[in-house]
Design a protein that fits this description.
This protein is α+β, with helices and mostly antiparallel strands. It has one domain. α2 packs across α7. The longest helix is centred in the middle third of the chain and has 24 residues. The radius of gyration is 20 Å and the shape is globular.
Length: 313
């Protein structure tokens, strides 16, 4: 998506709110959850991924980015001792999503690999109140005139309008509610990775696609304002910089610009650490920069953990 999130907002009929929603911020701000107790583990997780996991002098992004993700997820799972319902989650990889909708007179479809998808036995409760949802009626979606809002989208012949929450799930799958999508931009060559703005647009489109497919599975294909909105989260990272997103599908009536809009909260460009010095820098026999992680940002890790806990605490 060339214009990034602004284009994704139009395509999904969504209003953007900067920052994290109060439900997630409340988890961050509450000392009762003990997030600070895991800060040191998170710092070790970064060191393990960047410094200790390989014999190479400097590990490649395609190696350390997935390792860092696995390390952070492992730390999150430690919270299941305090919150047993966290055990009712499942990570699914290489699942395909398909969702189809009409926007103005254009038939649109998001389809493809859905990143790493964490599913839950229970849905995330709505994060916006009914009053906040009603207030979206007044929001005016940005247009791109004279540029078409579908610029740079791939045009294909659609023979079947699919709405599928995941081809790797069968009937009766107990972890049937999408919770959080994880996108790892781990390509070592920068030009092969999504830029942060394009990554956020991708995150929004796939969070919307998962929410729309789930809503149609639950409520049918007729366009409507949902009595129970569907919430899907998304986290994207290149192994250092993190993007956090919470999407709430309020309506499947997407043809017109009028009426209720969907909502997305985005917390952008959060560094987990500033630099990883893989080997010490030595000048004239003196170590000027020792090996190690500098500028570790515990708040970024806490946001990752808070989104993991969201819907449970």
């Amino acid at each position: 998506l060339f214009p990034g999130v602004r284009q994704a907002q139009w395509l999904t009929k969504t209003k953007l709110v900067e920052g994290l929603p109060p439900a997630v911020q409340g988890i961050l701000d509450s000392p009762a959850h003990g997030l600070q107790e895991l800060e040191e583990r998170a710092k070790h997780a970064v060191s393990h991924a960047r410094l200790w996991d390989t014999a190479e002098v400097a590990p490649r992004r395609e190696q350390y980015c997935p390792v860092l993700f696995e390390n952070l997820i492992h730390i999150c799972r430690l919270m299941s001792g305090r919150y047993p319902s966290l055990s009712k989650r499942m990570l699914a990889r290489d699942c395909r999503i398909a969702a189809t909708w009409e926007r103005e007179s254009i038939l649109l479809q998001v389809r493809g690999l859905s990143g790493i998808l964490m599913n839950s036995m229970t849905p995330i409760p709505p994060v916006a109140s009914k009053e906040e949802i009603l207030a979206t009626k007044e929001h005016v979606l940005e247009t791109f005139y004279p540029i078409a809002p579908t610029i740079d989208l791939q045009e294909v012949n659609v023979y079947k309008e699919l709405n599928d929450t995941g081809q790797c799930f069968g009937d009766g799958y107990p972890y049937s509610h999408p919770h959080t999508l994880f996108f790892l931009e781990s390509a070592n060559v920068r030009t092969n990775r999504f830029r942060p703005e394009q990554l956020r647009a991708k995150m929004l489109m796939f969070a919307f696609g998962n929410a729309l497919a789930k809503a149609k599975e639950l409520h049918g294909n007729d366009p409507k304002v949902l009595e129970q909105p569907v919430v899907v989260q998304s986290i994207g990272t290149d192994g250092q910089l993190f993007q956090f997103m919470v999407f709430q599908l309020n309506t499947t009536d997407l043809v017109s610009n009028d009426g209720i809009k969907n909502l997305v909260w985005i917390d952008s460009d959060q560094n987990l650490y500033e630099k990883a010095q893989c080997v010490p820098e030595v000048k004239k026999g003196v170590v000027t920069k020792p090996a190690g992680i500098s500028g570790f940002q515990p708040d970024t890790f806490k946001k990752f953990l808070a989104l993991y806990l969201h819907g449970t605490v």
